[in-house]
Protein 1
Amino acid sequence: MRHIKLILLGVIVLMTALWVVAEPTAFQSTGFFAVRAAAVQYTGVIAMAAMSVAMILALRPRWPERWMGGLDKMYRLHKWLGITALVVAIVHWLWAQGPKWAVGWGLLERPARGARPPITNPVEAVFSGLRGAAEGVGEWAFYAAVLLIALALIRAVPYRLFYKIHGLLAVAYLVLVFHAVVLTRFSYWTAPVGWVMAILMASGTFAAGVVLLRRVGASRQVRGRIATLQYYPGVKALETVIEVPTGWPGHRPGQFAFAMSDTSEGPHPYTIASGWHAERPQITFITKELGDHTRRLREKLSVGQEVRIEGPYGCFTFDDDCRRQIWIGGGIGITPFIARMKHMALRGEAPDWPQGQSVDLFHATGDVDETALAKLAEDAAAADVRLHVLVSGRDGHLTGERIREAVPQWGAASIWFCGPAGFGAALRRDFAASGFPVDRRFHQELFEMR
C-alpha cells in the first residue's frame, strides 16, 4: 500500500514540478482569465498523466510487479489513478466551461482580445486549425470517460458488463490524447513537461491499442482442458483441476492466474490452489459462489472443456526469513495456503524455506463442508502445519487476541492474510495497536481487480 501512495503522489508531484518549470509566471498571473488559462493547462496535464499511467498498467506489465508487491497492488494503483484522473478532469472541465457560463449569465465580462501575432511554425499552425475539433470531441470524450469510470467503480455492475464497457475507456482515452496534443500550450512541447507527456501518451496510446485488440497478456496465455470437477455443497465452492500440457511456465504457491472459459465473460482472476509439478502439469482453482459468474460455473463447466489460462501473477509467495509464520485464510481466502501446504508436503525433504520454520494456519469460515475440512486437515498434517479452524457460528469470530493467545511467539512471526478486505484491515489495525510491525511483516492479498 505504501508504494501505491508513493507512486500516485509521485506522478502528481513530478508533473506539477515540470509544469511549474514550463510556466514560471503562472503564480504571478493577474486577472481571472489569466488564472483560468493556467488552471486549464495544469489540470489537463495532471489528468492526462494519471490516465496515461493507468492505461499502461492495464496491460498487466510484469516489470514493476515485484517492486509494487504484486499485480493486485498494481490494480489498486490503476483504480486510484483512474479516480484521480476523473476528479481532476472534472475540475479541468469546470475551469474550461464555467467562465463561459458566467459570461453568458452576465456575471463575468470577457476581456477584449487584441490582434494575435501570426503563427510561423507550421506544426503550431496545424494545431491551431484543429482547436475547434479538439474541443468538441474532447468534451464528448470527457462525458464518456466520466460515465465509464463511474460504472467501473459501482460494484453492483456485473463483472461481465464491467468487462465489456471498461474496454471502451481505451477509445475515450485515444480521443482525449488528440484533445490534449492539440490544446496543450505549444511551448510545452519543447520543455521537459512536454517530453514526459509525449512519452506517457505514446505509451498509453500503444496500451489502448492492445486493449482494443484484446491482446492484453496474450504472450502469457496457454490453453488447458478441465480434467476434474468437484463441488463442495457445504461451502458452495467448486474445485476445478485443469491440465496445461504445454506452455505454462510454472507457478509458486500463493500466485494467481486469469482463467477464461467464456469469451463473453472475459478472464477472471483466481488464486491457484495447487503446487506445480512439471511432470504432472495441472492447475487447480477453487471458486466460491460469490457472484453471478461464480454461481453459474457449476452448470457451465464440464470435464474436457477448453479453458484459457494467463499468468502466473502475484507476490503473495511466503518469502521471508522468519522462523515462524502465521497464515490467516478467511473463507475462500484459504486457497493460497492450500497451494503452499501441498508444495511443502512435496518438498519436505528438501525445503526451500528457512530450516525449522513453523507455521500456524487459521481458517475462519461461516460455512462448513466436512469433506473440504477433512482435505484441509490432511494437507496441514502432510505439511506439518498447525491448523486452527474457527466456524463463526460455533466458535465465534477470529480476532487478533485469539491469534496471539494461540501463538505466544507472534511478535517474531510474519503474518500472511488472504480473505475479505475488511477482515484483513481490522486484523492489521489490531496487530499494529499491539506493536506489531505491520508495514514489514503483515502481508495481505488485495484480491479486488476492479
Protein 2
Amino acid sequence: MPDQSNNGAQLLSLTRAARLVGVTRGALQKKIKKGELPTFEGMVRPEDLLRVYPDTQLDNSSELERFTHIKDEAFAHRVRERLLPEPEVLAERLSGLGKELARTRAQVERYKTITDWLYDKFSEYERSGGQDMRLVMGPLKLWLRHELEKQSPNDYLQSYVVKESFLRLMTAHVRLVPGQREFFVEGSDTILDAALRAGISLRYGCSNGNCGLCKARVVSGKTLPMRHSDYVFSDAEKAQGCVLLCSHTAVTDLEIEAPRIGGAQDIPMQQIATRVKKIESLGEDMALLHLQTPRTKRLQFLAGQAVTLETANGAEAEYPVASCPCDDRNLQFHVRRLPGNRFADYVFRKLKNGDIVALDGPKGEFTLNEESPRSLIFLAHGTGFAPIKSLIEHAMARDVAETLHLYWASGDGEHYLNNLCRSWTDALDNFHYTPLVADAAESTPALQQITTAHPDLSGFDIYAAGPEDFLASVKKYLRDNNFPENQLVSSRVD
C-alpha cells in the first residue's frame, strides 16, 4: 500500500515519517504547527522531512530506540520470542522489494537511453549547424553532462531510501479505514496484537480464532495465517477478503476495514478468573498487584476503566486498572492497605502467587478522548495515579498528543512510583512530570504551579483522579481560571 502522492512525489503519513526520522508524532505535529514542516492532506514530503531533520538525525536511531525502549518497559509488553518476521513473510517482502528494484533499474536505464540520445542529437546539431547553433548546443551539452555527472540521489536521500527500505522489510504499515488510524506490525505479531500495542481499540473476543469478533476485510495488501482458527467464514466473506486479525499477520503494507471500539459502551462486561502473577511491595502500606488472564480470555478494556476484584474469602473491591490496554493479559492494580478494607487486608496477609482472583468488568467512562487535537495534563492525588498511569501509557502508545504533563500530588509526599515517572521524563522529550505535596482538601496552592507553567490552559485537555475533596479543589480552581468545563474529565479514586 503506497503512500499517497502529490504531483507524482511520494508522500509519507506522519506515523511512517516519525518512524523514519526516529521522533514521535507529537514532535512532528509541533514542527507542523510552527510552520517548519509543510503538509499535504496530513502527509509530508520526504524532501521536506529531510530538510527539517538532516542526515545526522536520519542515520541516528537513538531517539527512536529510546522511545521504543520506554514503551516496552512502561507498558510491560511481553518479551518477544522472535524479533524477526516469519521466514515466509520476509521472503514475500524481499520479493516485493526486489521487483520494485527491478522496475526502478529499468526506469533508470530508460532515462539513460533518452539522455544519451539527447546528447547525440545535440552533438549532431552542433556539427551540422552554423555559428549560432554551436553557440546554443555547446553550452547545452555542457549543462547536460554536468547534470548527469552530479551525485544523485544525494546523501540525504540515499539515507532515507536505505532506512525506508529496511523499515518496509522488517515491519508492515497498516492503515484502518474508515478513520485512517495507523500502526506497524513488527516481528511475528498478529495484526490484532500490533494494533493493541499501538493503543488502537479494535473489537475482539477470544483472541484464539474461534469467535470471529475480530473479523476484518482486507482492502489492499497481503496477510498470512499465523495459527489455526476454527471460525468458518461464509462464501461472501471469503470473496470480500475477510480474515481474523487475531490469527493473521501482515506480509505487506495493508489497508483494512476493521471493527473499532467507539467508547466504553461498546465493551461488554466480562467475568474472568485471573491468577496472581506477582505482588510487589511499593511501601509499607502499598502493593502493586499483578494479575494475569488466561490466554484465551483476555480483558478487553479502555485505559482509565475499573474492575471489581474478588478473593477466595469473598472479599471484593473496585480498583482502576493501572496498566495499558496494549497488554490485555497482564493487569496491574495499586492496592493501599486501609482500615476496614477486607480485600486489601487479604492481599497483604494471605494472597500469594498462583492464587485465583475473580475479575468482573470493565466499568466507567474515565477514558481518553483520542479525537482531541489538544495536549494533555494529568492530575492525580494518591492512588488516583492508578487510572492516570493507564491513560498516560495509552497516550504514549497512541503517540497522538503533542505534549503530556503529569502533576501527582500526595499528602505525605510519598509518590510510590516516582522512579517510573522520572524514567518517562528521561526517555520522552514531550513528557513532563511534577510531583506535588498537598492534602486532598488543600490542593489550591499546589495547583497554582500548573497555571504558572501554563498561563493559558485552553489548549489542554485535563484528566484528574483522586479523592472527592481533591476533585472538588481541582474543579473550583479550574473554574476560577476560566477553564472550559468540557475539557475536564475526572474520576473519584479514594
